[in-house]
Specification:
The complex is a heterodimer.
Chain A: H1 9-26, H2 56-78, H3 90-110, H4 115-134, E1 145-149, E2 151-156, E3 161-166, E4 172-174, E5 180-182, H5 191-232, H6 236-248, H7 250-253, H8 261-284, H9 320-324, E6 327-331, H10 340-362, H11 374-378, H12 382-424, H13 430-459, H14 462-473
Antiparallel strand pairs in A: 1-6, 2-3, 4-5
Chain B: H1 3-18, H2 22-42, H3 47-78
Helix pairs in contact in B: 1-3, 2-3
The chains are: A mainly alpha, B mainly alpha.
Chain lengths: ~475, ~80
Amino acid sequence: MNSFWNGKRRFVALFMFLAGVFVALRVPPVIPFIQLPGENFPEGYNVPFTDIRITNTLVAGVIVWVILLLLIAYVARRRPKDGSTVPPGGFYNMFEALFEGLMGFIGGIAGGPHFRIIFNTFMTIFLVVLIANWMELVPGIDTVGFIHPHVKEKYDADTDEYKVVTTDGYEIYQGFLGISYVNGQCDWISPADEAAADEAAQARADAAAISAQQAQIEAAAYDRYQAAHAEHGAEEADDSHGDEAGDDHGSDDHADIAVDSDSIAAAKNEVLDARTAEKQARRDRGCYTGVAPSAWEDGYVEPDKSEKKLIPLHPEPGSEEAKQVPWVVLPFVRVASTDLNMTLTLGIIAFVMIQYVGFKALGIGYLTKFFNFGTLLKSPLGGIDVAVGLLELIGDFAKILSFSFRLLGNIFAGSILLFVMSFLVPILPWPFFILEFFVGVIQALVFGLLTAIFMQLATVSHHHDDDHDHAEAH
Amino acid sequence: MDPQSTIIMGKAIGAGLAMIGAAGGGIGIGLAVGGAVQAMGRNPDHTATIQTNMILGVAFAEAVAIYALVVSLIILFVLN
């Protein structure tokens, strides 16, 4: 142990420590963005020839299988020929020891006639889950990725589709090499301001309608006055005097004058349409309102939205640019086990294998485990057996949930633990990496082992077991 | 109080309440490890077997706490 810190290693450790401190002080922190479903890659990164967006957990899943296939290929290639006395090399040796140890372990649990299929299932699940879990310890996974403003998906009721927008209402554009930029052409308007603007527009529309009505009434009153004067043939002086007097209280005197309601509505609609067009124009520029204003936290600086601009990947620390947008990282690769899709798939595979080996061992009689009406014919107490069988049926489906949530919860919680610890202090998290190393092994082992145990239990006939117990008791 | 704060408050309280379930997992792990340590003390020869089974039992007990954790994570990060 002492020799570990001698030589070059301690300089490496010192360098890592200083680098951690430097990075912590120098680089502006990004928000540790926690999202349970796998994050979609930005627009344009589809699964080839489909519309399905790639998620970062899918990438991790593919990597897991590639590693597994490479491992199999390597081990198969290094395997000594039968009868060869050449001792196999280091990694192969380790793998063989692991393989043998686990084979003995499973042999002790399920060493029956179905040992091979049980062990194959166990080993496949074990290796897949183990590689997937250990990926969270690899530097760069979960941390290196697209950096972009804090975004969320926003439902746009007008176009009936989801759009990716930042928390302050910008639409995200994808630039070169994954550098995201936001459309800076829109003004951020809070939902309250938007509602106030709507109200103001409504008030203006009402005012326009009233003034239009007023103008019509006045015009009609003037016409009527002119007509009356023309009939009487009054003098010019009286005319002009009377005109002003009529104007003063024309609206009161002539409230019964029929007005053209269409043109009043048109005047009102003109204002409202202008407001709608204003909103539509902003939406056309990719701006939304009504998004949760998490950007209104302390230290948030109102962005300068005068022009459309490219926000740099690494804004100068402490600069206005860096403070403008809350940044998050969308990792290229996120641990596959933190996605329910992966764990649920493994759970369903385990479930199918359990049922398969049960049918293989017991044939159609396996179903009596779930639908046990045999004893009901003999005595009414057999109803208990029926109920137990139904419980077994429910329990078997519950295994899927229990399998998938156990793995998901453990590894997702572990990832969050590593995030949080890494964001607290730069050097501190290494004990937690050791913890996660063991959690990864234990969860892989538990997943595989439970599958093996349940498969073994499925191969054993219930009735046979009961008879056996009775025989022993006697 | 504005609606946003109320929602956050409700989420935080709900997530905290969900994590009460972790207490059960803690008790279970304590019982399992306590029993295993006693057994190891009496039968030091069987330490390896006992340890394996203990770790399995601990993992199962922990899983129950993890379910509570998943629920609270869903409340915090998935519910809108």
